[in-house]
């Protein structure tokens, strides 16, 4: 596992040596591993001039903070992204979507997950950041926004949580 300054040196070496013709804007560089998880902060790699022009990878989950307000989660994103929002893609984010939970995006959040699902999409939208809800389609972890059923060529995709999907779409500016 690489941490801190080793990440940019390793990325630069691999990209330039193995893929010299790949445009920097097509290279996604992992954020720094912190006590709060993988790719939890992009400010260090974003500040490294050797990685100018690359994209930066961010993961953010409700476990990254105990904030109970949307504004608190907006601030978390601002701290993790810094001045690099135009280069950052949130490749993993999301909160539990099972059990009938409703994330309206309005009102006063009642728990960390609700505050997260208000504030994080708000800041992604404000920054015009790209992002992927984790997990869009998966098994039994309660985080999936969709499920697949059927067999063979008769598969059906069903949204498991309309409010979670709405917050994802809102983060995209839809």
- Global morphology: globular
Number of beta-strand segments: 8
Question: Could you tell me the radius of gyration in angstroms?
Answer: 17 Å
Main pleated-sheet profile: 4 strands, parallel
Strand fraction equals 15-25%
Number of domains: 1
Secondary-structure content class: alpha/beta
Provide mean pLDDT, rounded: 84
Q: What order do the helices and strands follow?
A: HEEEHEHEHEEEH
Give the strand line-up of the largest sheet. Answer: 1-4-5-6
Kindly report how far apart the N and C termini lie: 37 Å
Number of helices: 5
The parts where pLDDT drops under 50 for at least 5 residues are 1-5
Helix content: 25-40%
What does it look like?
The structure is a single chain. By secondary structure, this protein is of the alpha/beta class. It has one domain. Helix content is 32%, strand content 22%. It has five helices and eight strands. The strands form three sheets. It has a four-stranded parallel sheet with strand order 1-4-5-6. The N terminus is likely disordered.
């Amino acid at each position: 596992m690489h941490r801190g300054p080793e990440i940019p040196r390793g990325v630069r070496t691999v990209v330039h040596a193995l893929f010299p013709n790949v445009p920097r804007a097509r290279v996604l560089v992992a954020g720094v591993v912190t006590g709060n998880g993988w790719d939890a902060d992009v400010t260090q790699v974003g500040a490294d001039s050797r990685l100018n022009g690359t994209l930066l990878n961010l993961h953010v989950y409700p476990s990254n903070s105990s904030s109970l307000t949307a504004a608190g989660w907006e601030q978390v994103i601002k701290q993790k992204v810094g001045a690099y929002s135009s280069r950052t893609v949130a490749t993993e984010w999301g909160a539990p979507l099972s059990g009938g939970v409703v994330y309206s995006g309005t009102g006063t959040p009642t728990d960390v997950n609700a505050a997260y699902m208000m504030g994080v999409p708000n800041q992604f939208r404000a920054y015009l950041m790209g992002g992927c809800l984790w997990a869009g389609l998966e098994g039994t972890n309660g985080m999936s926004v969709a499920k697949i059923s059927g067999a063979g060529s008769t598969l059906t995709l069903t949204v498991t949580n309309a409010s979670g999907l709405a917050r994802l779409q809102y983060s995209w500016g839809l």
